Amino acid sequence: MSLRSYLKGSFPTVRDVDDVVQESFLRLLKARSAHPIRCARAFLFGIARRLAVDVIRKERRTTAHEVVMDIDSCNVLEDEADAAESISTQEEIALLAQAIHSLPARCREIMILRKLDRLPHQEIARRLGISVPTVEVQISRGMRKCTRYLRSRGVVICPRGHSS
Fold this sequence. Notes:
Radius of gyration: 20 Å
Strand content: under 5%
Order of helices and strands: HHHHHHHH
Distance between the termini: 56 Å
Largest sheet: none
Mean pLDDT: 78
CATH class of the largest domain: Mainly Alpha
């Protein structure tokens, strides 16, 4: 089926494409009963795209607690790191997770895709159905807001290439 192929190609991270296809058809039928639809195929694909994006958003929503728990479970420390440094690093990571979690939903999602998943701007734009400039603006806003959040809590932000 072309809808299934479209979803698999455009949204490879969606685990259960069949659920999205089924829900898309249900919504199409419901919409058709309410009003006539000129191009059912385009309407169906639009529904499917929005549902797939919603699924990705839902899967990507990461609370500060989940991020901290994932990091805590790794227990990766440098050989030279002492206990105080380790605790300080964990606290900073927890604050960073809180900063990301405090962002508006769209901005948070874009920041996670870019900074944690390391996706390029073009891929983020394609996945979310938005323009590359919108992605760039959201990343810039997210970085400013996270920096403000961290500074307001006493975290010193060093420019890249500099150490404290």
